[in-house]
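Re: weekly structure request thread

Next one in the queue (442 aa):
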Amino acid sequence: MPEITQAMTAEFAKTYAANDKHQVVAHSVIKNGITASGENIASHVENAPVFSIDLATGAVANQKQSGRCWMFAALNTFRHKMLNSFKLKDFELSQNYTFFWDKYEKANYFYENILATADQDLTSREVAFLLQMPQQDGGQWDMIVSIFQKYGVVPKAAMPESANSSNSRDLNNYLNKKLRKDAVTLREMVAAGKSDADIQSAKKAMLEEIYNFLRISLGTPPETFDFEYRDEDKNYHIDQNLTPQTFFEKYVGVNLDDYVSIINAPTADKPYDKSYTVSMLGNVVGGKQVKYLNVDMDSFKKLAIAQLESGESIWFGCDVGQSSTRDSGIMAMDAFDINGLFDIDFTMTKAERLDYGESLMTHAMVLTGVDVVDGQSTKWKVENSWGDKVGEKGFFVMSDAWMDEYTYQIVIRKEFLSPEQLAAFEAEPKVLAPWDPMGALA
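Done, posted below.
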């Protein structure tokens, strides 16, 4: 392994000093930071917030200091439907309610995976993967579907936010401490040859502690409640003694089995028009399997446009931190000219970024519009869940090229898939490793 020599560094320093551009650029970067110095204002002009298809969605929500974007995005798609159907204003579904049950179910899912791998050494990649992050706030579409199908939903008024749902750092810290401690006990019981009945009895006691921890931290999920509201015409409504399940059926009224996850992952190990799942990815034991259909980007965007044209918004997952401006809400490949700033080519292909750990899905939002010019999409309207102080009152603009490079998943009604696509989705999926980038949680 050749070492760095002083002569080599001296050569670099001499070349750097001879370049006047480096000196000028350094003044800006040192004082203002890299992205602020490299921001390209022209991208704002190219991505003006005007769209040929623009759905009415109401005000944006705010996940605050939590990783619940996937939950917010799913609930927001339901909220859009309810706003129009029932003439609601400033209405939200309870994110704290789904948060509670997701944490509860993730604990059980972790315990069962620890038991399933109890015969493996602690140094095995599977066990190390489980213990690195026993649970977190993030999730996938099919995981939130499992929560909806088992527990229903409630209005935000029936289970408001708590300090720990709005800022989940402490909650996750102590919950993961508890899960790792329990993992020690469960693995030791298996090693000692304890019976399945004894192990499950111990797990039940652990789950009771988890349940108590969550009720103390997040509040009590309602079993029944009254739905009381005044519509935009000032008419008063009350529907009494609802359960979360009957509320979902009556007011959301969506058949969640009608939706499928479509991904674009152009890596060699994932041929297009095939279905995929990810090992050890989920939250509800016995719940919906996380499953995707991988398609090329042209098909991906055609499916998204078709659903928006029908008047329905779209849950989608992307790598939001790449080439995007949080304050102005521009997601564009030319949002920053970092290559020009440093005279370094940072360009990689989408497949290379996935294969080499440079990108993966980090955030879920909602597509609520698209600008189609001469039959071609040019930019997309995005409803974020970071409040109304960023972007255009909380809405972002995503360029078509940015979608190509950094968008990985959309959720689409089956009716928009071709018969061939639907058959490919319903085929037995290839099982990906737990650490595959398509198993990333938004």
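The mean pLDDT is 97. DSSP finds 17 helices and 14 strands in the chain.
Next request, please.
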